[in-house]
Amino acid sequence: xxxxxxxxxxxxxxxxxxxxxxxxxxxxGAVWLRNARVFSKLWRGALLPTFLDPFLYLLALGFGLxxxxxxxNGIPYKDFIAPGLIASAAMWSSAxxxxxxxxxxxxxxxxxxxxxxxxxxxxxxxxxxxxxxxSRATIYGIVVLGVIAIFGLVSSWWALLMPPFxxxxxxCFSVIGYAFTTLIPKIDLYSYFFTxxxxxxxxxxxxxxxxxxxxxWVHVVAWFMPLYHLVEITRGLATGPEFWSIVGNxxxxxxxxxxxxxxxVRALRxxxxx
Amino acid sequence: MEVASPRPxxxxxxxxxxxxxxxxxxxxxxxxxxxxxxxxxxxxxxxxGFLGPNGAGKTTTMKMVxxxxxxDAGELTVLGMDANTERRRIKSRLGVVPQETxxxxxxxxxxxxxxxxxxxGIDAGAAEKRAAELLEFSLLSDRGEERIYGLxxxxxxxxxxxxxxxxxxxxxxxxxxxxxxxxQARLAVWGALDRLRRRGVxxxxxxxxxxxxxxxxxxxxxxxxxxxxxxxxxPDLVRAHVGREVLELxxxxxxxxxxLVASLDGRIQGHDRSERTLMLYADDAExxxxxxxxxxxxxxxALVRRATLEDVFLRLTGRSLRE
Lengths: 274, 323
Prior knowledge:
Chain A is mostly helical. Chain A has helices spanning 25-64, 77-108, 111-115, 122-150, 162-183, 190-203, 216-223, 226-239, 243-260, 262-272, and strands at residues 71-72, 75-76.
């Protein structure tokens, strides 16, 4: 892989004892607060596209394509895709926050050199950034939920339970983006992340079409994608819950997030603590 | 104001405990040895300097002290704690002024300080009060609400110092605190460091400026290629390595420098040569100039001056360019 030859590639870094992977909540919270403070200055400009995005998808796919594809699994097409747009908004938000925004803070502003010379350690920093990314993604998800509710595309009060599940899914997207950021030597490589991972996940996670008439392997591939699991949850809650499906998908998201957390912590420590 | 409360009680108890103690401290980056087994002790309450050409290992040594580099071999104790295993506790009592300006450009001046307080777990009320005091300390009181972009280089550096003090540190590490500043801004930074030292804060600083080192440092080490080549109080170092005065001769074309030096044997403590300039070190350079056989050794100009730390530095680390 060309990436490994780049001088900026520091690798995943040595193993870290478990106790050094557990963040201190108060210090992770300090990192979260910094990001929240900056967002509070910018949110008006940042949220507007979030309103427009689901609106455009609904218009083009729900009301355009939906005219030809009347029903899927017995529900109108626009009702089918709408809850998935909450999940995909959380994914896009997480992906941008943990790639370009983290990269900018780390390599352009060089904020992390300062943060790590205070009592904050790498695991606190990563946890705070991930928690912030998930919070931001959830704000976006709630905005989209509001938009689709206005369009009358939410048929169950269970939809009000969505935010904590969106947090969980967003943490999973975020830890993947963060891992990528800590491993890449230069910013150009983000195009691979978006073209080869985020966009295919957006298109092939059962958001726009169900898998039941496609070959089995499609389902298998989708099972490995975090977005598939979050779409299952949000759709389940918007149309009336299926308890065990929600539990199963949540466990998948939580387990993958916990397992991957060690990657950015190790890689960032290797990169910044020489 | 109380930037760092004086610690008279602690001073007695810790007089025997060095603020920083290094024994055989070594750091390697792959094949390259950046720091090659150095020893030093920093007494509490003093300003301790690290001088050396680029690549001498100063910044790496600083990073090992404040936990952004691990110690590969040897023993490094900071405030009585092991630098590798007690990073978090050490950092809670330390302030760092980095070489690179890494202020948070998305926040205002005072928000930068308040955010730093959060990293130290200081509650909001105490942080507000302390930030106001430190803005005054760094002469930035009327700039609190400004963005970072609007500050001059000197203001940014003073803000970096204030930020390093938010956690009420016992030890402040400064990596080239005045590089790139104009003379007035440099004076303001020196003033701030003086006030800090008077309050009993231990300062550890690296610098390229000999004048700065002579003025600020109680003790210093000169590093070259990862090792310490000299250590002591600045005036002692000058006397030991150079003498009191320097006779600086600009030689005529064809003047034999080696024979000139040989002719003064016993009357000078040493010499250095850089192209056509010959430096002769002596306690009485005027006398050496009088004794010189001016008919045999033609010179374009001669200058007698006081010996400085710069002479020591160049004697010990050589005159060739380091890059």
